[in-house]
Design brief:
Largest sheet: 6 strands, antiparallel, barrel
CATH class of the largest domain: Mainly Beta
CATH topology of the largest domain: Thrombin, subunit H
CATH architecture of the largest domain: Beta Barrel
Strand order of the largest sheet: 1-2-5-4-3-12
Distance between the termini: 74 Å
Number of strands: 12
CATH superfamily of the largest domain: Rod shape-determining protein MreC, domain 1
Shape: globular
Order of helices and strands: HHHHHHHEEEEEEEEEEEEH
Structural class: alpha+beta
Strand content: 25-35%
Number of helices: 8
Length: 278
Amino acid sequence: MRNLWIFISKYNAIILFFVFFFISLGILINNNSYQRASSWNSSNELVAKQYQKINEFKNYLRLREINDSLATENSRLHNLLPQLDSASLSNQTKKITDTVYRQQYRYLTAEVINNSINQKNNYLTINKGSNDGIKQGMGVIGPNGVVGIVLNVSPKYATIQSLLHNDTRISASLSTTKAFGSLVWGEGNFNSQFAILQDVPNHIKVKKGEKVITSGYSLFPAGINIGRVVETDLKGGNNFLNIKVILSTNFASLSYVYVITDGGAREKEQLESLNKKE
């Protein structure tokens, strides 16, 4: 015991330095959503590998549920094939000459190895990264709809800023009127099943049960499912609607997602950058 006190008194400055260092680091991570995401989700590949091992065990226990989900998704894709064949037959010229248009969007499958849904700012980690062509800012969807946006990328892993995040904004539209606005989550209600569609003019007639889809004005192709309208009301003091949407994606059971690669993104960015110079 005497030797211990001698050691502590001799090196007390160094010990106090490390104690306060780790306390301050913990405060920084816990109170800064970006730092927390970078520290716990994408930057540390060792942590990501542990997530993957745990997720493999969980998926083994959920094989029946995962297989049912994949079967449903395959059925949906098969149902779309006749529509694609019909469109091809009715527009043979576009099929032959406009290959860039047909291949603008590609979808890369990735496995979800970590996921949060109970925080104010939620993230997912997937087992694909820059080695697979994934870049920051790409859109991510699941079998049933929009999931989020790629935030951080390492060679083998990537972190997704979930739709269930205060800073996530998705350009969305109503399927019948095509009126569009910004889909946000939170707004005092942190339920993983619901989001709010804002900035839709109040003269637009909105029906309960109406489908809400991506508008095509952001990272996502137009027409991707987001959810359905469950409630509408007027926001106080302006002329826009607050539309409550039940999300089509069940974030609690996500196993696989699709990262969207936009072949025309670079050309679009270069063109829009010219406007900023004017």
